[in-house]
Amino acid sequence: MLDAADEFSTRVVSALHTARNTSGDILYTGKNGLADGGEWLPEIREAFDRVGVAVDEAQAREARVHLLFRDETPAGLAAAEIITRLRNVELALRKRPYSLHEASAMSTYSRNYSAVVSAQAEFSRAALQQLRDTSPQRFWRWIRERAFGRGESNA
Prior knowledge:
By secondary structure, this protein is mainly alpha-helical. It is 79% helix and 0% strand. The two termini are 23 Å apart.
């Protein structure tokens, strides 16, 4: 269970970093990032695609979280919110015609980005609590294995 939560969280953080880097690219290039005809330059379109792939990877790990933690638990609810909000971040970046140069897109991006950060903290807290409640021995064994390597411990 902890591995599933860890993999999900890692992908979420990766998606956030990718979105942040893409937002910087968009803001740096300005409206000059648009080619003739109103299409984004290839490097900006590629950045959009990287965000989409990063969100897809987080969403792919969400299914395992729901399977192991259940949908109706605080961890399951937080995971669902995270993916919804990440998609909103992606959509704000892709908003036509000017992406984050429009106030509405920037507001949507900022609000959802912050919500993902908050939901990620809630997910981590809820997942760890559920793990402790489910199997304290398994939880501490996992911690020892990560800290000291497989089969080793100082206990």
